[in-house]
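Example (one chain per record):
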Amino acid sequence: MEHVQKLLQQKTELESELRQLDNELHAHGVDRSTQLMDANGFPRSDIDIVAIRTIRQSLVCKQNDLRGLMAQIETQLIALHQTTHSETPTPKRRAFARVSIVTPHSPASEAGLVAGDKIIQYGSVSASSSDCFQALSAETINNINTPLCVAIERVVNGKPETLELSLLLRRGWGGEGVLGCHILPI
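Predicted structure:
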């Protein structure tokens, strides 16, 4: 973090130097793009061409320095963000529903759902969704014959584990509905 702050301080100093050089150009009555030759191709006699060219050269060098410094800052900020992000624990996702019954040979059974599984994510529906069960119903209807990612929490050997299952909702599997299980709110 200190390294990034030093780079940002250098950036501020370079930008200040660039403004100062621009002000020097304006004091000579020119800017970065003012022609230094007259209409006949001769150096203008009303301005100090050597001083202006020197200032312009300094401006180009400082701009290149600033461009390189900005690339360093970008690299350092990305690295800092990745370090900070990897140190931040991901919040535990909360279950919003529980599977109570799974019909054998149903899409739910084939996906691997079993009674007692807690549903954490059902397609785009999660505990943070408003009116989870209405959203779950809409997600089911909108994903018939399309694989749907379902994240569940299942207790295995006394410890909760999170599993990702792929559920293919479909009609005509031999039972009622497209899912083949009963889901209750938690």
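Caption: The mean pLDDT is 90.
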